[in-house]
Design goal:
Layout (H helix, E strand, L loop, with lengths): L1 E2 L3 H13 L8 E2 L13 H13 L7 E4 L9 H8 L3 E3 H12 L11 H4 L2
Length: 118
């Protein structure tokens, strides 16, 4: 799991996921506490960081990128190509799940394996 968060918040997210049956092999945060205190996270910075996190647990079934403020939509397919696992990200996949709750497909080809499904 790659997060934008500091260690405390990342640890809480890990505990939440584990309480709900997920096995979290590795958690790394970018240490961001306030986005106002730093330059914007670039696509390349996020791509590189996420790929490095995945390399710490290459037998993982998936990669989770957590933080709704990170711009991840355009990175899903390239990360999946690089890591060879599904990549789930907070905002795009939350919106996808909400659309599916409305009875619509939410299908968005070109933005990773999960968003490309019917």
């Amino acid at each position: 799991m790659a997060t934008a968060y500091n260690e405390e918040v990342s640890s809480r997210l890990r505990a939440f996921l584990e309480e709900h049956g997920f096995e979290v092999l590795v958690v790394k945060g970018m240490g961001i506490e306030r986005f106002e205190d730093r330059p914007p996270v670039t696509s390349q910075e996020l791509l590189d960081f996420s790929a490095r996190v995945w390399k710490l647990a290459p037998k993982s079934d998936a990669l989770l990128i957590s933080c709704g403020a990170l711009k991840t939509l355009e990175l899903l397919a390239p990360l999946e190509e690089q890591c060879k696992v599904p990549v789930v990200s907070s905002l795009p996949h939350a919106l996808w799940a909400g659309v599916r709750l409305l009875g619509l497909s939410g299908r968005a080809p070109g933005y990773g394996s999960l968003l490309s499904r019917n």
